[in-house]
Design brief:
- The complex is a heterodimer of chains A (about 525) and B (about 725).
- Chain A has about 525 residues and is α/β, with parallel strands linked by helices.
- In chain A, about 35% of the residues lie in helices and about 20% in strands.
- In chain A, the strands form 4 sheets. Chain A has a 7-stranded mixed β-barrel with strand order 9-10-14-17-16-15-13.
- In chain A, helix 1 runs antiparallel to helix 2.
- With about 725 residues, chain B is of the alpha/beta class.
- Chain B folds into 5 domains: about 240 residues, Rossmann fold, CATH 3.40.50; about 130 residues, Beta Barrel (Ku70, Chain: A, Domain 2), CATH 2.40.290; about 35 residues, no CATH class; about 160 residues, no CATH class; about 60 residues, no CATH class.
- In chain B, the strands form 3 sheets. In chain B, strands 5-4-1-6-7-9-8 form a 7-stranded mixed sheet, sandwiched between helices. In chain B, strands 10-11-13-16-15-14-12 form a 7-stranded mixed barrel. A two-stranded antiparallel sheet of chain B has the order 2-3.
- In chain B, helix 12 runs parallel beside helix 14 and helix 15 packs antiparallel against helix 16.
- Classes of the chains: A alpha/beta (about 525), B alpha/beta (about 725).
- At the A-B interface, helix 3, strand 11, strand 13, helix 8 and strand 14 of A face strand 3, helix 2, helix 3, strand 13 and helix 8 of B.
- Chain A: Its main location: nucleus.
């Protein structure tokens, strides 16, 4: 999930923090200090995250486009200048555009708004924006909620009391609600100082940027892994209080399935599964771990040489063209597979299915998937020529069966023509002739379209009169027999009206031996 | 393969008849009751179709069925065209509504079909087996067209409407299941539904009378239902009245948009001409009622019927859940509201599939489809192509710029799905390769063996046996099997001997099984005898020499390692059953004898062997995961060593060479008690030891002196003990 840091660069951010006896800090200094800490944390523990930096006042500017280069971000932050008044709405609009341009409208994003809570005055202030929310046309809609899934973190370089003294807190809460409610407002504890700003950003890091560590297991084989990006919790849409479902830190492989059988399944999200060194003491809080980088590299080198299950699994999944079905929680599953980024690079990737007992209809219920050794005979066949998948649904869909729809006139005309075409080729086409005739008859009965039966009967009678002299004598018999049967039905005779009644070919002397159908 | 951004689609609706009937995370504002609730209005739909005498009237839309073929019977008078009755129009359009509904939601969206004349005819129930177009057609055929001669005074649509309300109160299987599972909060299971009434009304007043009747019936039925276990009060009901009239007539009823009559009932009126107008009205309604959207696949190449070698391009329109258009929501390609009643469709271009290769696409949603014009030639060509197992990628039509593949049509088990593929930049681009991470530098993984392991642990479905005798679900058994199969599974080739030996395969495959037959045990024993045979013949073993310089261990030592490993494998399974135990006993019995033999024969080589052994030992313990096993091995080896030293005769025999690396104790502290036992300590030795002690605190003792025998240090010792060096490196030396 990419991050946009939206930094307030208005003049109010230069307000000094009144602290007796210490150096003169501006709120901006505190904000920069906090963001530095965030960037350092990400550079160490969350380095695959793309982050962009936007500064705003009455105007906004994209200082650093999405990057994983935290030095660039840091540099831009330290060169930040001071501008005029706060105008949040246009800045949020800017964020919306930046994200959509880069990632499209479906990629979830985190927005970290850093502000002192002085939200401007008059036109362009947040208060003004919120007050005029309902009086806008289509073209001037408020940028929240963002058109992409988002989380809004509002980090205030101010105490809660300060914000509550004005309507700033109310406005920010309203803003958060507008964004869709996913996110949080963070405020500082008094006094405003370096220590409390560290605590402030520490809370943000804990909330949004903690790496997700788990153990990947396949029976007794196991590996410690980091899953990136962090799997988000999922809210099940039930009427009762939805309980957020979170991915377990124990990822347990259930078994293996061919790529062709799992067949490009729909997934909620995709994640890299990166093996991590087992006995490495990970700095969980993550702040200021930069000095250990040297040491870490050497641990990594060591770790590179000792066998790891992830690498083995990845290699075999790649070679065999298979995926591993993995359990993420109760009734929640995903799949592991090899994903090639380029010809040289490939990775172990995990995709998360929608929670539920049956995320993919073509696999059936996951709890009913068991080892092939339990089956009476190998469902894949001795030479891998078969597969137990896809699981067939109980009923066929309309397009997989020969349904009759006459809503458009040509649907009906085609069906009538088919009968006539076969009628002209009697007795060779006796079988298809009666098949089509019975199909039409059934549909006409279902639709209560008795007039059609009469009409087709007349058509067949006329065909009979038009038969050339060279025609097989059986043709005339069959045509008048079929016409007769349809007429009886259209007259309302209950015997001929039965839906399951089938018009069978007439037995004639010419049809040889009785069945009258084997003249193909 | 995967080219797009990381996209998350939010949680799904409980009733999803599609995969991912979702709303997205962070998109939770104005809560739409139909997606937030367990049973939305669309869970139950009741069709009430008028079967009164006036429905037998012609729709006056004429269909020419006598299409004269060219060149035949010129001057012949064609037969009169046929025309559908109002009833036929109503039935076929409602059946089309059901067809689309069942195609896209094969479960959890139910239809109850009621026909009304002098009484009501309920054609099916809420039960799942009654939910199909075929079932309904059979029942409709039994009802037949309305009788135009029936007394119109006795006939009314009201019978049907009353029955519809009663039906909505009846609990469905799904509702029953939900109530049972939520025992204590069963009252929170909702009951909502929709009534679609196809009738020919007399006037607006007549319409109002029908609405009032429904409202009253709901109130009455809700009272009844409150006191019943098998009924549920209706919380919300949508009444959709469709007034149909013959073509050419003026309508007597005016259209009216949806209006809340009470908190429970809302009502809307559509006045449409029978025939194709009615058909398109119901098509719009089914899309609105079930959140559908339309996609037109364009540029489908099709062979011409007449000229087989030419092809023309066709379009096919498909319906599906509207979330398949999620990514167009904000773009200029399409979207917009459907309220106008004008059908909108998004056009996607067919990309002729080049290969049949299986790829894993990054797909963010899959949605069942239903063709709008199911039996037209282009539609059936497309669906048959897909049903035969081919997939088709779909491209967004763009005037400029690069090609964007955003969707894929693919069939799974006879059902066609529109897959939504990710087409934006990926947030996971340029990840570190797996070879750069932990374990990335190791090159001798048992990739092929693990591939074989994966094939053996493939899954299959057991739909008819939810649990086995021990009460385990199939997927629990799959996990149990993985556990058994991995009790001893070295990950790299140089960590194992037995898994590199073809001869061990039969035993290794059998021993992991949950139960062994008598025959299985025999096979295992045969495998063991075979190994004994190999040892007697002194066949070489595929022992890895990776990491050790020189030739590696001697042949008999190789066999010792192999037997130890085999024992480790079998011991892991010895608890499984008696027969597993038998296999272990067989190994223990077979391996001891030749070992003793060897010992007698090759006494002279013992010393050397010991070093080789320790070396191997050290190497094996490299892998932390197997520490336990190797500890056990080590213990064994050490015990063997002790046995050997006990047979002191050999050691002291004059022809046995002095071990060259027999190291004296390093610390003087250790030496002292030894000396003490020899008798009184001389002044010199006391003095020397004191000086040495003092010196040792200041600097480490010269290694040569420490290792020296009678103060003579042998130079270039390492040349003789090259193998020993490795042992020191990994720090697991057994001294």
């Amino acid at each position: 999930m990419p991050t946009v840091v939206l930094m307030d660069a208005s003049l109010s951010m230069t307000r000094p923090v009144s602290l007796e006896g210490s150096e003169d800090f501006q709120r901006k200094n505190l904000a920069v200090h906090g963001l530095t800490m965030l960037f350092e944390h990400m550079a160490t523990n969350y380095k695959l995250e793309f982050t962009a930096l936007v500064a705003f006042s009455s105007l906004w500017e994209l200082l650093v486009p999405f990057t994983r280069d935290y030095n660039t971000l840091q540099e831009a932050l330290s060169n930040l200048e001071d501008y005029d008044k706060t105008c949040l709405e246009s800045a949020l609009q800017g964020v919306s555009n930046i994200v959509q341009q880069e990632w499209g409208g479906t990629c979830p994003c985190q927005v970290v708004l850093v502000t002192d809570g002085a939200l401007g005055i008059g036109r362009g202030s947040l208060r003004h924006s919120l007050a005029t929310l309902k009086q806008r046309g289509e073209d001037k809609k408020f940028p929240l909620p963002f058109p992409f899934p988002s989380k809004l973190y509002i980090v205030c370089i101010a105490t809660a009391e300060e914000l509550q003294a004005t309507d700033a807190m109310d406005n920010l809460e309203q803003l958060l609600a507008l964004s869709g409610g996913e996110g949080q407002i963070f405020t500082m504890d008094a006094p405003l100082c370096l220590k409390s700003v560290q605590a402030l950003f520490g809370k943000l890091i804990d909330q949004a940027y903690m790496p997700f560590h788990a153990v990947l297991r396949c029976g007794n084989l196991a590996s410690d892994v980091q899953v990136f990006p962090r799997p988000e919790h999922v809210l099940l849409d039930e009427e009762l209080e939805p309980i957020p479902k979170t991915v377990h830190t124990e990822l347990e492989i259930v078994g293996f399935i061919e790529i062709g059988d799992i067949a490009s399944p729909p997934v909620l999200s995709r994640h890299l599964v990166l093996p991590i060194a087992v006995n490495k003491e990970v700095d969980e809080v993550g702040a200021g771990a930069a000095e250990e980088i040297e040491e870490e590299t050497s641990t990594n080198q060591m770790a590179g040489k000792s066998p790891n299950f992830c690498v083995l699994l990845h290699g075999s999944l790649k070679v065999e063209g298979m995926v591993a079905l993995v359990q993420l929680g109760t009734d929640w599953f995903g799949m592991l597979y090899s994903q090639a980024d380029s010809k040289k690079k490939s990775n172990l990737m995990m995709s998360i299915f929608e929670p539920g007992p049956e995320p993919l209809p073509w696999l059936g219920k996951i709890s009913q998937l068991g080892p092939i050794s339990d089956a009476l005979e190998n469902p894949y066949g001795e030479d891998d020529s078969k597969s137990p998948f896809p699981v067939l649904p109980k009923s066929k869909r309309s397009y997989a069966q020969n349904v009759t729809v006459w809503i458009k006139a040509n649907g009906l005309q085609t069906d009538v023509q088919k009968i006539l075409r076969n009628a002209r080729k009697l007795p060779e086409k006796t079988q298809t002739f009666y098949k089509e005739l019975n199909r039409l008859r059934k549909a006409a009965l279902g639709f209560g379209f008795w007039d059609l039966l009469k009409g087709v009967a007349e058509l067949l009678e006329r065909e009979c009169t038009l038969l050339p002299d060279s025609a097989h004598p059986d043709a005339a018999f069959q045509l008048s027999h079929a016409a007769q049967q349809l007429k009886l039905a259209s007259s309302g005779d209950p015997k001929y009206l039965a839906f399951d009644h089938v018009i069978t070919p007439m037995l004639t002397d010419f049809s040889g031996g009785g069945s009258g159908t084997d003249r193909m | 393969m995967f080219s797009g951004a990381f996209t998350s689609v939010g949680p799904s609706g409980w009733e999803s008849g599609v995969l991912h009937q979702t709303h997205r995370t962070g998109d939770l504002q104005p809560v739409n009751t139909s997606t937030m609730m367990m049973f939305s209005v669309s869970h139950k739909t009741v069709f009430v179709v008028d079967h009164c005498p006036y429905m037998a009237e012609s729709s006056r839309q004429q269909i020419e069925c006598d299409m004269l073929t060219k060149g035949r019977a010129q001057g012949m008078i064609p037969l009169a065209p046929v025309s559908k009755s109002l009833w036929t129009c109503a039935v076929e359009c409602s059946m089309e509504y059901c067809r689309i509904l069942y195609d896209i939601y094969p479960a959890k969206k139910l239809v109850n079909y009621i026909v009304s004349d002098s009484e009501c005819h309920i054609l099916n129930t809420w039960r799942e087996e009654d939910q199909s177009v075929q079932e309904l057609m059979t029942a409709l055929a039994a009802v037949g067209p309305p009788n135009p001669h029936e007394d119109p005074e006795c006939c009314s649509i009201l019978h049907g409407l009353v029955a519809a309300v009663e039906s909505l109160c009846k609990i469905t299987g799904y509702q029953h299941e939900a109530r049972t599972s939520l025992a204590d909060v069963a009252h929170r299971v909702s009951n909502r539904g929709r009534i679609i009434c196809l009738t020919n009304a007399k006037s607006d007043t007549h319409v109002r009378m029908l609405e009032d009747c429904v409202l009253e019936t709901i109130q009455e039925q809700n009272k009844l239902a409150a006191g019943s276990d098998r009924l549920m009060p209706i919380q919300q009901c949508e009444l959709v009245l469709v007034h149909l009239y013959p073509q050419g007539d003026d309508t007597l009823v005016s259209d009216r948009p949806k209006k809340e009559m009470t908190s429970v009932l809302s009502s809307e009126v559509h006045s449409v001409r029978a025939g194709r107008h009615l058909a398109s009205k119901l098509n719009v309604l089914v899309q609105l009622h079930f959140d559908l959207a339309s996609t037109t696949i364009t540029n489908i190449p099709m062979k011409e019927e007449q000229h087989a070698n030419t092809s023309a391009n066709y379009d096919v329109e498909l319906l599906h859940h509207r979330d398949a258009h999620l990514e167009f929501k904000n773009s200029d390609i399409g979207g917009g509201s459907k309220e106008s009643g004008i059908r909108e469709t998004i056009t996607l271009k067919w990309c002729t599939p080049r290969t049949n290769s299986v790829e894993l696409h990054y797909c963010t949603g899959a949605f069942r489809i239903s063709p709008v014009d199911v039996n037209s030639r282009p539609s059936s060509c497309l669906t048959n192509f897909l049903l035969n197992g081919r997939s088709v990628l779909l491209e967004q039509p763009r005037k400029a710029g690069s090609k964007v593949i955003s969707h894929m049509l693919s069939c799974h088990g006879g059902e066609i799905f529109l897959h939504m593929l990710n087409s934006t930049r990926s947030t996971l681009e340029d990840p570190p390769s797996i070879s750069e991470g932990c374990g990335g530098r190791v090159t001798d993984y048992r990739i092929t063996d693990f591939g074989e392991f994966m094939r053996e642990n493939r899954l299959t479905t057991f739909p008819h046996t939810p649990v086995d005798a021990a009460g385990r679900a199939p997927f629990e058994r799959a996990k149990a099997q993985l556990e058994r199969h991995t009790r001893y599974w070295p990950m790299i080739i140089s960590q194992t001997t037995i898994f590199n030996m073809q001869a061990v395969v039969p035993l290794a495959n059998l021993i992991v099984k949950d139960t062994l037959t008598e025959d299985d045990v025999l096979t295992c024993q045969k495998t063991v005898y075979n190994l004994v045979d190999m040892e007697r013949k002194n066949d070489p073993l595929p022992i890895s020499t990776v990491g050790s310089r020189g030739k590696g261990p001697k042949r008999d030592e190789q066999y010792r390692i192999m037997w130890n490993e085999l024992e480790t494998l079998v011991k892991m399974h010895v608890e499984t059953s008696e027969r597993h135990q038998q296999v272990l006993e067989c190994i223990s019995a077979c391996r001891s004898k030749p070992q003793e033999e060897e010992e007698r024969k090759k006494r002279g080589r013992k010393r050397e062997d010991k070093d080789d052994k320790t070396e191997k030992n050290g190497k094996e313990s490299e892998d932390k995961q197997w520490t336990q096993d190797t500890d056990r091995l080590k213990g064994k080896v050490e015990r063997e060593k002790e046995n050997e030293s006990e047979s002191g005769v050999i050691k002291d025999s004059p022809d046995s060479p002095e071990p060259f690396n027999k190291k004296p104790r390093l610390m003087l502290e250790d030496l002292q008690p030894q000396e003490k036992t020899k008798g009184p300590v001389s002044l010199l030795s006391l003095w020397t030891s004191r000086i040495a002690q003092a010196n040792s605190r200041k600097h480490p003792e010269f290694a040569g002196r420490l290792n020296s025998i009678s103060n003579k240090a042998e130079l270039y010792q390492h040349l003789k003990e090259e193998n020993g060096k490795d042992v020191h490196e990994n720090g697991k030396t057994t001294r």
